[in-house]
Amino acid sequence: MEDPQMSGLYWAMVRRWFSSFFHRVWRRGVMRSGMVTGLILAAVVGGLSLAYREQGRGHVRRIKARIEPVRTGAPEPRPGGQGALEVTRMRLLGSAMPEFLSVTVLPGRGMNVLQIGAFIPGKGEVSLLASPPVEGAASTMTGSGADDDGQQSLAMGGAFEVPWAGRIWGVGSQAAGRLNAEWHGHAISLPGSAQAGSNGGLMLAAGADSTDTTAFPDGGEVQAVYHMGNYGAHWLSKTDVTITVLLSGRTVEFTVAARNVGDVPEPVGIGWQPRFAIFDGNREQLRLHLPCDRREEVRDRKSGLPTGTLLPVAGTAYDFTARGGVALGRMGLDDTFASLHRETIDSDPSAELTDPANGYGLRLVASSPDIKGFHVEAPADADYVSISPQYNYDDPFGQEWSKDNDTGMVVLQPGQSTQWKVRLEIFSLSSSQSPL
Fold first, then answer.
1. Is residue 388 exposed (0-12), middle (13-18) or buried (19+ Cβ within 10 Å)?
2. CATH code, domain carrying 417
3. 433 is a domain residue
């Protein structure tokens, strides 16, 4: 058996040999030759060059993007049974322009855009939508009582409306809480009542079947897929819906794609109902611009039921076509505006809400040609203004519309798809991005 003392002696001799070698080769050959100094200088110069190059490209000062579930110290709130997702980006250092910073969506509630964060010079970081925090949304979105069929989604954030936008009226049904409508001779049973109609489509409380997130240098994207089937036996065919939200510094893009995966034709309407917050009680001085030449006439303000007539807005209090918009004043609105037109030959129809007191504006660009109108909800005593770009008019199946009047519903044959796309822009009123 080997003597432990001899093993220790041999090990000590080996260590002394390596120590001596290191001293001769490293300290005398490298340190005294100035090689280390040269290596350090080269590393410093290389690092500075890389930083300068990246700064020139805007990478260093631009952003750190992330996409993650919204987390708090308490148990994670889960509206609709699924956690909220947040896309964020960092503000450009030294920028004096308004820009988007974050988007929070609820995949368990039909991808409701609960909040959009932004930076506004002179005001700082703000929340653009009139919404509670995620915890408040989760406590309200219970699926029962006032939230039957997901109706609380229409009272906060920005709800996506599929397979129709706005309201559908019909006739009373023997089933409680249901009404009957008809499309091309096909009966449709919807949640709601003959008096109040059925509001906001059938996806308000839908949970996502899958979600996917991607981070980009200047923001990120979140996408959710919904296999809606026939919407719980309320619709004519089976539908898959994909909703995508893409965040960058100056824009947020929203895309809704609906595909008929059934075996019979179906009508589809799509809309988005964002509730933009009013800051500092400045509601009267907000300015609204709509690229619309007509509006729906309604039988009475209480029901909102359309008469089937589109009235010209020129020369009336509902004319918001002026460049730079028209001050809201004390006027209350709950109207659908139609007959969209382009401001210039190469631009899409755009609605604008500007805030002169805070020096910024928001622009909603209707990128899809099938978008037929903007519904504006702006109660005179409320803290929000809602501008909803949508395919269809109110009550698109109603008998009040003449047969040759296109009410905006897109008919999808089996296997066909439609894509609704809207771009939200933020701009400074004192820059070249100001309204037309």
1. buried
2. 2.70.98.10
3. no
pLDDT interval class at 413 (50, 70, 90): very high
**pLDDT reading at 29 higher than 70:** no
pLDDT: is 159 or 57 the higher one? Answer: 159
Residue 253 in domain: yes
Identify the residue whose tokens are 């809606």.
228
Of the candidates 364, 360, 361, 328, which has an alpha carbon nearest to the alpha carbon of residue 343?
364
Identify the DSSP state of 64: -
The answer to whether 380 and 332 have CB atoms below 8 angstroms apart is yes
Per-residue confidence (pLDDT) for residue 13, from 0 to 100: 52
Confidence of residue 11 (pLDDT cuts 50, 70, 90): low
Q: Which residues constitute the domain of residue 122?
A: 64-428
pLDDT in tens, 185-218: 999 999 998 888 999 999 999 999 999 999 999 9
Does residue 358 sit within a domain?
yes
pTM for the model stands at 0.83
How far apart are the C-alpha atoms of 402 and 117, rounded to whole Å? 43
Decide the pairing of beta strands 292-298 and 333-340. antiparallel
Phi and psi (nearest 5°) for 51? -60, -40
CA contacts within 13 A on the Cβ side of 232: 12
Lookup result for tokens 């897109």: 410
Please, are residues 286 and 376 in contact by the beta-carbon 8 Å criterion?
no
Residue 252 domain flag: yes
Please tell me the predicted confidence (pLDDT) of residue 67. 61
Any idea what DSSP says for residue 129? B
Q: Is 197 helix (H, G, I), strand (E, B) or coil?
A: strand
Dihedral pair phi/psi, residue 206, rounded to 5° = -75, 140
Q: What total of structural domains would you count in the chain?
A: 1
